[in-house]
Amino acid sequence: GAPTISIFQKPAGVIPPGGSTTICCSCQCDNGYFDLYKGGQRVHTLELRGSRAEFSISNATQKDAGAYSCRYRDGGTGLAHSETVEIQVQEFRLPEPVLSVLPGHDVAAGADVVFRCTIAHPKAGCFLYLEGSVKEVKFIPKDEDCKLSHVHKGNEGRYSCQCFTRNASFEWSAVSKTLDLLVR
Predict the structure, then answer these.
(1) Which residues of the chain have pLDDT under 50?
(2) What pTM value is reported for the model?
(3) CATH 2.60.40.10 fits 92-183, yes or no
(4) One CATH from 2.60.40.10, 3.40.50.620, 3.40.30.10, 3.40.1280.10 for 5-87
């Protein structure tokens, strides 16, 4: 069958005008090419290095916002498509949040873990991101925490959070510093 293609944004989250991000495409493939598509149009081609290719966006503008996907091909034959990752470019108007994890960064499998994203704003909700995921892991309403029950190796990774308010339009914070979760 066709190889499974994955796509994710690194770092995750909304980026500010002038900011940068990387779109990572990966698969269990030996060689070939990745074509990066935006809104159905091919915008870039990269040769596979190892099992992934990285497409960088720097000095971002609204023109960089949109839905991106990867297509893997070997020779002229398109073999598989990824899901879509949505890149958003917005001004940051809220303070940077702080992400913490309880009981700590290093936990035993089966434990319960609580992520807390703290921001100095009375009405902001936050998203929890896990590097390598296409979508945010969880929406965290204001003054609530995100609990992961019975964690396992699949929950391991680099987490961050980003907060927003929704008035007439969305206002965003920067992305928090990352935090690594290790599951033993």
Answers:
(1) none
(2) 0.87
(3) yes
(4) 2.60.40.10
